[in-house]
Amino acid sequence: MAGYDDDDDHTTTPLGDETSDEAPNLSDSRSIASNGSGSERHTGSEKSLTSTKSLTGSVFDQITENGRGYANNTYILPNDEAEQTRLAIFHQAFLLLLQGQLTLSRVSNNVGRILDVGTGFGDWAIAMGERYPNAQIIATDISASQPTSVPPNVVFQLDDAQQDWTYSDPFDFIHMRGLAGAFSDWSSIYAEAHKHLRTGGAFEIVDWGLIQLKKPSKDSHLTAYNEALKSAAAKAGLAIEHEHLQGSVLEGAGLSVFRTVVRDIPLGTWSTESQQIGLGKMALIAVLEGLEAASMRLLTRELAWKAEAVTKLCTNVKMEVTRPGTEAFVQCKFVLAKKLEYNSHEV
Question: What is the pLDDT at residue 342?
């Protein structure tokens, strides 16, 4: 969108109080019916007719490294049981942040096709399938670690979003969450999203950044952790904060940004706003459980740290962040975009 300014749309007001007249109505007359009653389940292993990819038995292999399990040799986050627990808490934190909603975008009950890229263990996709039983939900990941009993309108597929997307039918809504550090070339990811959205369809991406302190200290363990993580990510060519969420990056791939929301999330119970207490508790658990997950592979590989040193630093950060009187927070950023009717990227 011409004239988009990332800073102009910065807001820390409650998400539920915000409105946007520009938000697209995510409905489509091509909505599919569910495959049975609301209680019916399927295994998620069937092949979707709209993609060339499906889950196969070989994808269950896991690489063990420094006590954590990973899906492959490159992605920095693990996919083991501890990570599953963290992502489940992460999902609950977002439900609190969005006041029970699953998206910041306005999604119609008649929405047709939804794509969740980097679904992880599938919490969001499953919840969307239950909330929108007439929608077709395709959720992709590099790891087949999702449950086998899911709503009948949800299909999990093995897919690396860095490769060409192979869907033959466009989507009404494409969603990404918690993928900071996943890709080195975000422009190509956004270009694929643009290509596979229907005209007027919407795209939503959300990530939260590194832990911050209201009263930062250069000598803190948290500062050491953040600086080490940023140094390792830079060496690996990865964006681990909000660099990939800049409006110019999305618009360079053809998407038209119509809304950006930034929210500071307190970690713990120090906030004076009562509605923030529950969110702060949940976010604190998710963030602390993610310290080692986010840093172990990056620091040991890129900076040649010993695993024991990473674990020790994470332990010190946990103690520091939870110390009485400490006011820690993370900044969560939502970016909403749409595919316009006419776009030079389609010529």
Answer: 58
pTM for the predicted model, two decimal places: 0.83
- The distance of Cα 22 from the centroid of its chain, to the nearest Å, equals 23
Tokens 């369809």 label which residue?
Answer: 201
Mean pLDDT of 300-320: 98
Query: Measured between alpha carbons, how far is 278 from 97 in angstroms, rounded to an integer?
Result: 10
Class of residue 265 by CB neighbours under 10 A (exposed 0-12, middle 13-18, buried 19+):
buried
| Distance between CA atoms of residues 125 and 347, nearest Å | 33
CA distance linking residue 230 with residue 250, whole number of Å: 22
Q: Which of 116, 112, 124, 230 is nearest to 180 (CA)?
A: 230
CA separation (Å) from 237 to 182, 231, 233, 279?
A: 10, 10, 6, 32
Burial class (CB in 10 A: 0-12, 13-18, 19+), 195: middle
CA–CA gap between residue 341 and residue 334 (Å, rounded):
23
